[in-house]
Amino acid sequence: MKVLLVGSGGREHALAWKIRQSPLVTSLVIAPGNPGMERLGELAPVKADDAEGLAALAREMRADLVIVGPEMALAAGLADRLAAASIPCFGPTAKAAQLETSKAFAKDFLERHAIPTAGYGVYETLADARQALDVFQPPYVIKADGLAAGKGVAISPDRRDAEAEIERMLGGRFGAAGARVVIEEFMDGEEGSLFALCDGTRAVLLGGAQDHKRAFDGDLGPNTGGMGAYSPAPVFTPDFVQQADERVVQPTMAGMAAEGAPYRGVLYAGLMATADGPKVVEFNARFGDPECQVLMMRLAGDIVPHLLACARGDVSKLPPLDFRPETVICVVMAAKGYPDSPLTGSVIRGAEQDFGPDVQVFHAGTARNKDGALVASGGRVLNVCARGADIAQARERAYAAIRKIDWPGGFHRSDIGWRALERDGG
């Protein structure tokens, strides 16, 4: 098979690492990729939001499968263009991807299909949003409607802070993504991420993970795209997963098909474990980042047949996915100043050494300078992932690897996995 993988972050590096292990794959092209993927396939200089350019590349290389990593490619309609060219695509159409690209669409969809979620309202003006705060109780959950790289959510402890967040969002902080805001009821509980592989009518559960959104230790600081993750997530008990499948995943598949937007690809359901069972926090129309990294390291078998089956519209004949029994943890190393103003260009040493079979370092925001040295080129820069018999061993291996990386321009959280560690008595 000739495979085109779209994206340039840690999620895509992890996917490339896993796809390259498949005996089915003879050629892997990654667009645009990053330095960490240089040994895994051919890098093509086409940006992830250039749907027309990516579709042309897929036609030129006669791709048997296109795997879409980032949300901007889906929002740009890449899957639609590939369908017109009869090229199988692992990723939903722009219409189906609205589950992620518009929080207002997602909330209205959940309400239409009686899928459990928090109460909400959608507002386009500052006056209406301020007035709406009268019917909500603190803490207030404020979300930009569109794509904001995982940063468009604020939890405000009081009304004054909520009004300031609304004003920032509607005032252009996230550009067009903040033209509308969604205000939600605060849900009390523990959040996790459940993933399902979908073929338009059926969904097969892939597994769960738990991530850390806040920038600093103790879950403090601003929201980020994710500072770390681990899998399996202890909050996802077998009973919880069964409820989530019955109440969220399967009704979502049926609802999208009924509305003329059958969903193909991976469905990421951010779920809150509440006293009333699972409730939807958000949907993503692609693998999470850094959740994808831990799932790929746990997966023991070949993922390519499953991705291809989703793209072709029939997962019914595939064997169950095979996962390793170990725990995997991912610690994100970010550039100082992230998420607001990350400092780029700093040199990173030691990230490309061999850390042993249980540790993988996936590149997220990296580049080469004119001397060929590895440098930071984004906010989240490296993903240090490790396997272990339990969360404690996985953490120990990940942080031991981090200590071998010489990067004064970066920072990381030192408490990734603390919830799971507490459950284990650590």
Please give a handful of descriptors for the protein shown.
426 residues; alpha+beta; five-stranded parallel sheet; 13 helices
Largest sheet: 9 strands, antiparallel
Low-pLDDT residue spans: none
Would you count the extended β strands for me? Answer: 22
User: What is the average per-residue confidence, as pLDDT, rounded to a whole number?
Assistant: 95
Radius of gyration, whole Å? 20 Å
Quote the distance from N terminus to C terminus.
45 Å
- Structure class: alpha+beta
What percent of residues adopt helix (DSSP H or I)?
25-40%
Number of helical regions:
13
Query: Which band does the percent of strand residues land in?
Result: 25-35%
Shape by Cα distribution: globular
How would you concisely characterize the structure shown here?
With 426 residues, the chain is an alpha+beta fold. It has helices spanning 10-19, 51-61, 71-75, 78-84, 98-101, 103-112, 126-132, 159-173, 238-258, 291-298, 304-312, 391-403, 418-423, and strands at residues 2-7, 27-32, 42-43, 65-68, 89-90, 120-123, 140-144, 153-156, 181-184, 190-199, 203-211, 214-216, 220-223, 228-231, 264-274, 277-284, 327-335, 359-363, 366-368, 374-376, 380-388, 410-411.
Describe the structure.
- The chain is an alpha+beta fold and 426 residues long.
- Helices cover 30% and strands 27% of the residues.
- It has 13 helices and 22 strands.
- It has helices at 10-19, 51-61, 71-75, 78-84, 98-101, 103-112, 126-132, 159-173, 238-258, 291-298, 304-312, 391-403, 418-423, and strands spanning 2-7, 27-32, 42-43, 65-68, 89-90, 120-123, 140-144, 153-156, 181-184, 190-199, 203-211, 214-216, 220-223, 228-231, 264-274, 277-284, 327-335, 359-363, 366-368, 374-376, 380-388, 410-411.
- Strands 10, 11, 14, 15, 16, 17, 18, 21 and 22 form a 9-stranded antiparallel beta sheet that branches. Strands 3-2-1-4-5 form a 5-stranded parallel beta sheet, with helices on both faces. Strands 6-9-7-8 form a 4-stranded antiparallel beta sheet, sandwiched between helices.
- A hairpin with a 3-residue loop joins strand 12 and strand 13.
- Helix 1 (10-19) packs parallel to helix 10.
- The longest helix is centred in the middle third of the chain and has 21 residues, at 238-258.
- The radius of gyration is 20 Å and the shape is globular.
- The protein starts with a strand and ends with a helix.
- The mean pLDDT is 95.
